[in-house]
Amino acid sequence: MTVNPGNRVREIINATRNISPPPSTDQTRESSLVDLSLAAPGIRVDLRYATENNFLGHILYDGKTALLQEPVTESLTRVQILLSSQGLGLIVYDAYRPWWVTKVFWDVMPINARTYLADPASGSKHNRGCAVDVGLIESGTGKILPMPSAFDEFSERAFVSYSKGTDEERANRDLLISTMGQESFSVISAEWWHFDHDLWPKYPILNEPVPK
What is the pTM of this model? Predict the structure, then answer.
C-alpha cells in the first residue's frame, strides 16, 4: 500500500530531516543501541524503510542496520530461542526509527488515518529503540509465514482481534503474540506485527540516523 506517493513525500522528507525532536523528560536510562544482526545473527532483518518497499514508497533510512536498546535486544534473542525449538524464527521489518521519520509519517498521512501512527509531539517507542516490528519465518527455508494481513497494511485485517482469514494465518499471528509476550513485549491492538518492550518509558527519544 502506497500513501501519497510522488514529489510531496520527497518535499516533506527534505523539510523534516533537520527538525529537532521534543525533549525527553522521563528517561532514567542512557541509550545503549546495539546492532541486532551482531547480537542475534539468527534473526533475519528486512528493514522496509531502508528500501522503497513500504507504504510511502520512499527510502527513509540512511542504512539497513536494525538497532534496539541492549535489554530489548536480549529479550528478542530469547524469543528467537523459543521459536527455534519449533523450527521457526523472527524476521524484523523495523526496529529503532529516527524521530524525524515519525514526523514524516504524521505529516504525510491524512488526519483520519493518524490513529495508526505515533504523534511526533510525544515521540514513539520506535524512536526510543524499544519497539520492533516482526513476523515469523521457517528456520530451514526462510519462508515467511502467512498472517491475516501484510505488514503495514492499514485495514481491519491487521487488528489482533481480526477473526477472519485462514486458520493458519490466525494461528501464526497468535503464536507470534504469545511468544513475544513471554519476553516483556506487548502487541498493539491495530498492528499484529508491532511490539513494545516494557522498558520503553525509561529511554530518551532519539534522532540519530540508521547506520549503514
Answer: 0.94
